[in-house]
Amino acid sequence: MNGSHGHKSCIVIGAGGVGVITAYSLFKAQKCQVSLIVRSDYDHVVQEGYNIDSCDYGAVKEWKPHYAYRNTQDAAAGDRFFDYIVVTTKNIPDGAAENTVSQVIRPLVESNARIDSTRVTCVVLVQNGIDIEKELQEEFDHPLALVSGVQLIASTKLAPGIVHQKGKDHLIVGAFDAMDAHAVAGAREFVEMYRNEGQNHVEFDASTRFTRWKKLLYNAAINTTTALVELDVPRCLEFAQGSLGTEHTLFRPAMQEIVAIAASEGITLGEQLIDFFVEITRNLVYKPSMCVDHEKGQLMEIEVIVGNPLRIAQRNGVPTPTLNVIYTLIKMLQSKTKEAQGLLKFDEKTARLAQ
Known about the structure:
alpha/beta, Rossmann fold, globular, KPR-Related, ApbA, oxidoreductase, KPR_N
């Protein structure tokens, strides 16, 4: 490894469309060593690399990260200290226990502590949802600098080693806790390591909680609804036309409830943001992530997007009639997928969930 890559080491977990572009952006900027956890495509990637068709970087042929691993156990087996653990997988705490973020990163956190217990590990969660850092605060005794990443990007893995990025990468990075000096410094350094001038967009986020609540307006109200009915947003709006319609019975009331919950936490989201999300999605024939996940038979990020805000609402005494209905319906849908995956069992003799 030559010195031009600097001494920092980053490991990206999640080699889907988003994770591969995240890893490539770090690699291209040449300010750190890049490791990637490549589960299903491992053999293919080690031999052939990735072919990336990117709106930011053009056609990239046979790209390989500095290091590739099958899983975090393999990565943790060596003597490499990972300064940054970057998580780009879906955040599904209600899924299989071994796939929760804390369980996936545990081997790396523990090997870092073994290699050098004085150095702080930065964990960058490039994931949706609110309060997603809490799980890590509760699970680990080791000091972690927890960094929030909110990414807007449209990138898909089409086949083993084939990635198509059609929407520009826009990443905002900041400390979950603005008082945590390590996390603030880590976030600022990550911005510098990630930046490819004139190609991608990355900025420091001084107010990560505001950013996350803002994105929840869209995710908790619109993303969820599209999954429930398996439709893109314009169809959701057009198919239930009438005096009330989807916009006024579902989208706006649910978003107003998110505004109220955020306000109970001291975060002010203006009413104009509701108009912004309704208008920006009205003309975009595009199925949001939850809808796509559900149609693929995959679990959705329902707890971090709807469950956590509702738990805050309950704690703070904020009424949420619309979100309660959305959550109940989407939980049923999630359980249907879990039953298909064998994650839960329903006993038809007793007509109850089997414990």
